[in-house]
Amino acid sequence: MIAQQIIEKKRDGHELSSDELTRFMDGYMSGVVTEYQMSSFLMAVVFRGLGPSELGCLVECMIHSGQTLDPEGDKTPRVDKHSTGGVGDKVSLVLAPLAAELGLVVPMMSGRGLGHTGGTLDKLEAIPGFRTDLTLVEFSDVLRTNGCAMIGQTEEIAPLDKRLYALRSVTATVSSIPLIAASIMSKKLSESLSGLVLDVKVGRGGFLPQEDDAEALARTMVDIGAEYDVATVAVLTGMDNPLGRTIGNALEVREAVDCLSGAGPSDLREVVIELAAEMAVVGGVAGAVPEARLLAGRRLDDGRAMERFERMVRSQGGDESVLHAPDRMGVAPETATVTADRDGFLSGFDPRILGHAVVELGGGRTALGQNIDARVGFELHVAAGSPISTGQPVGTVHAADADGMAVGVARLLAAAEVTPEPPPPAPVIRDRIA
Asked: 168 an active-site residue?
């Protein structure tokens, strides 16, 4: 195999055979294909796409590059959820223990921040001691005792996807339907699932802002799930504004704890309950979504989901006491509140501006393996659609130093959109594809 010939063929829009694609991927794993050659290939895919047979082959390559989870005779329905990535999206932290409380086993395998979006693993690691690097044996032990566990990819599970995921984050090759679909589904299909619910973000804060593209991605993933006999449902949720009121790892953990305690912002709670209900139905522990919604809401309000989250944190090495003393997760040394400079209505906050701003503040990565600052980010004090007056607090910036503060204030001012008239209402739950 000559790597540049494979790259050239895809660059020119030709379809690769299964043999060509498999050898190229195997070559990357063995070191024959270099990082810069794979970067070129990924960019070619962004522009040229992958045909159905190419996509199926890529998913197979990713799955078979590692091991799959073994339920070890456990007949409890195993259901996971995945989000395509958003700003302020801390849903997984609430959803995993909640779905387990509904009677499911939730083997949740998550990722780190990608592009302008935050990562569940980065949020979890804001909790002192929390381990996201469990071995498969440790992962299975936590699942047996707690019903849910949350880890990142190990070299045991889809290691090809793990390497490509990290490379895409720093080479501007994230926004590609086949690459997103293959990445998500290879991880999930390695978990021996009976059901899967996908949270596909729609709007300017998602990787695929246009609704047609988001629907295409959802249908692609649902079709892949069907090929592997995994009941798969995609829920399209709004991402024209950040989800909830916080952006930044430690800040989002605090908001997730609020939601698990029966409080928290209404949009976050709505998404969590909807996805939990869908998980309960595809897992067969509820007959219909409406009744499952009611049960999920009760489990958030009665504290049982919070108790399970605490047990999961403890079983994965984390200090659960910080959940009730959030300042112990770390407080940014610099904070400043930004106020409105005119009267009107807050039509929203541009999520991409704030997502990229967290990266600028040090809360995300611009290079592979880079350390991040969990303390930095933004608190938003006004909900989209609300009236606002001059001098009213709009949001608070949390920064590591004075230079970061200057950047954060400028970005928050740029992201806040004040208009003379209120914006039209936008539903959080947009569509469902099964």
From this structure: yes
82 in catalytic set? yes
Q: Which CATH superfamily is domain 330-419 in?
A: Pyrimidine nucleoside phosphorylase-like, C-terminal domain (3.90.1170.30)
Q: pLDDT at position 368, please?
A: 67
Give yes or no: 9 in active site: no
Active site residue 183: yes
Cα 52 to Cα 110, 123, 223, 227, 346: the distances in Å are: 25, 35, 11, 12, 43
CATH 3.40.50.2300 describes domain 79-324: no
Distance CA 413, CA 353 (A): 10
Hunting for tokens 């004040």 — which residue is that?
418
pTM for the model stands at: 0.89
Is position 90 annotated as part of the catalytic site?
A: no
Q: What is the pLDDT of residues 127-154, one digit of tens each?
A: 999 999 998 889 999 999 999 999 987 7
How many degrees, rounded to 5, is the angle at CA 388 between CA 382 and CA 241? 40
**From 10, 90, 112, 168, the catalytic residue:** 168
Any residues with CB less than 8 A from the CB of 5 and at least 6 apart, and which? none
Q: Which of 116, 163, 187, 352 is catalytic?
A: 187
Rounded to an integer, what distance in angstroms lies between the CA atom of residue 212 and that of residue 222?
15
Which one-letter amino acid corresponds to residue 122? D
Q: Which of 158, 138, 157 is nearest to 149 (CA)?
A: 138
List Cα–Cα distances, 145 to 100, 140, 230, 319, in angstroms. 11, 9, 24, 18
